[in-house]
UniProtKB/TrEMBL annotation:
NCBIfam families on file: PRK06830.1
Protein name: ATP-dependent 6-phosphofructokinase
Organism the protein comes from: Maribacter aquimaris
Coiled-coil region list: none
Binding site for substrate: 208-210, 253-255, 309, 364-367
Keyword Transferase in record: yes
Site, Important for substrate specificity: residue positions: 181
Domain of life, per lineage: Bacteria
Family matches, as SUPFAM superfamilies: Phosphofructokinase
Sorted UniProt keywords: ATP-binding, Cytoplasm, Glycolysis, Kinase, Magnesium, Metal-binding, Nucleotide-binding, Transferase
InterPro entries recorded: ATP_PFK, PFKA, Phosphofructokinase_dom, PKF_sf, PyroP-dep_PFK_TP0108
Protein EC: 2.7.1.11
Active site per UniProt: 210 (proton acceptor)
Domain Phosphofructokinase: from-to ranges: 81-388
Length: 442
């Protein structure tokens, strides 16, 4: 059982101002109203977990419920907010920016909202990126487009210099939209702010298309990713069946977690093999992938393969080689898609077995797509709950959904590990049921 205290949220001080939100103060499960810090959401919801807490006389692990507070910390008419987007592109970033601006302006009457240009670089004056004034008029249509109107970048910057910029520009709260590296950077900024005794709130909104942020149900953009991938897989199937012994390989994003590949496979059940980073497979051998693929072609004369970008890294000879990382510290993987295409071609050529291979990599098209309706709704919820927490003076936290409820979590709680597919869980079994592939290919 996890330590209850690890989910406590830091606050800047006592909330003394009346919230400008005109919510009813009546109580009731069907009324959207102010919530208090004592309102909690259970981390584990099974009856077995509940009974274990009773037997052990333990308090169940519960998370702080997100939502508007009746008393807030900031004087909203004197508050200045800033928004920064970091890391790779992801569907829904503009939706979050728009909802933050609209909520800050119309809910809380905040008149000064700055957009930080090109990620954390924008908080370092020497880059010369400057700020952009974010107004409702400026952001009103941006949800229709993918990418980020603020620009993005990877890599860390000098934390002290970034805090200097926040302080010098009178910024009271910073909303950082990004993945694991961005959130760790936000927490470091928050630590430096606390060290200096400043009253600046740091809020993380978790963005990773791979859906690999720990604890929370899902991250925004993930649903759109497999939604956009599904028709691409359908068309790949058309290519594969259009030729005798046709093989279509579709490479999707998923550096360390294969949620996009597996979800797209289940949503478009024409895939015969799905390969993800969490699984170990070999190419050679009686039960290896190549022989398994040959047996598939012998009986069905076509095959569709979906592979996550981080799958099969054990197949590359890396003895004595140093790991290459990007600016965010992520290990850069070798291209499994091109390796599969090459190895499959060589294998069947050696057997004098005629095949037609089509290789499709839509990764950057997918991550640059606008959010679908489901993600659009989710992005708005994340943004609104993030600004409610910020106004209450909470800091170094992220907003997310756990057990389908919006909650606040310390940044450190979600960045300590990465979420991966449980290879013995029901989700992966559903993917295997959809493809019909063997449990192991070794």
């Amino acid at each position: 059982m996890e330590d209850v205290e690890k989910f406590d949220i830091d606050v800047l001080g006592e909330a003394q101002y009346e919230s400008p939100l005109g919510l009813s103060k009546r109580k009731g499960d069907d009324i959207f109203n102010f919530v208090t810090d004592k309102d909690r959401v259970l981390r584990y919801i099974s009856l077995n977990d509940h009974n274990n807490c009773i037997k052990g006389e333990q308090e169940p692990v519960a998370l702080e419920k997100a939502g508007p507070r009746e008393k807030i910390y900031f004087n909203t008419k004197k508050t200045k907010a800033a928004i920064v987007t970091c890391g790779g592109l992801c569907p829904g970033i503009n939706n979050v920016i728009r909802s933050l601006v609209m909520g800050l302006h119309y809910f809380y009457e905040v008149k000064e909202i700055l957009g930080v240009r090109y990620g954390y670089e924008g908080l370092i004056p020497s880059y010369g990126h400057g700020f952009v004034d974010l107004t409702p008029e400026y952001v009103k249509d941006i949800h229709q487009f993918g990418g980020t109107i603020l620009g993005s970048s990877r890599g860390g910057q000098d934390v002290s210099a970034m805090v200097d910029t926040l302080y010098d520009n009178g910024i009271d709260m910073l909303f950082a939209i990004g993945g694991d590296g961005t959130l760790k950077g936000a927490n470091a900024i928050g630590e430096e702010i606390a060290k200096r005794g400043l009253n600046i709130s740091i809020i993380g909104i978790p963005k990773t298309i791979d859906n690999d942020v720990s604890i929370i149900d899902k991250t925004f953009g993930f649903e759109t990713a497999y939604h956009v991938a599904s028709p691409i897989i359908r068309d790949a199937h058309n290519e594969a069946t259009g030729a005798y012994n046709g093989i279509a390989i579709v490479k999707l994003m998923g550096r360390d977690s294969g949620f996009i590949a597996a979800s797209a496979t289940i949503s478009m059940p024409v895939v015969n093999f799905v390969l993800v980073p969490e699984m170990h497979f070999e190419l050679e051998g009686e039960n290896g992938f190549l022989e398994t693929l040959r047996r598939r072609l012998d009986t069905k004369q076509h095959a569709v393969i979906v592979v996550a970008e981080g799958a099969g890294q054990n197949l590359f000879n890396k003895d004595g080689q140093e790991k290459v990382t990007d600016a965010s510290g992520n290990v850069q993987h070798d291209d499994i898609g091109l390796l599969l295409k090459s190895e499959i071609s060589a294998f069947f050529k050696k057997l004098d077995y005629e095949v037609t291979i089509k290789y499709i990599d839509p990764s950057y098209i997918i991550r640059s797509a606008p959010a679908n309706p489901g993600d659009s709704v989710f992005c708005s919820g994340l943004a609104y709950h993030a600004l409610h927490g910020a106004m209450a003076g909470k800091t170094k936290f992220v907003v997310g959904r756990v057990n389908n409820q919006y909650v606040y979590l310390p940044i450190t709680a979600v960045t300590s590990t990465r979420k991966k597919i449980n290879m013995e869980g029901g989700f992966w079994f559903a993917a295997l049921e959809s493809t019909g592939q063997p449990f192991e290919m070794r």
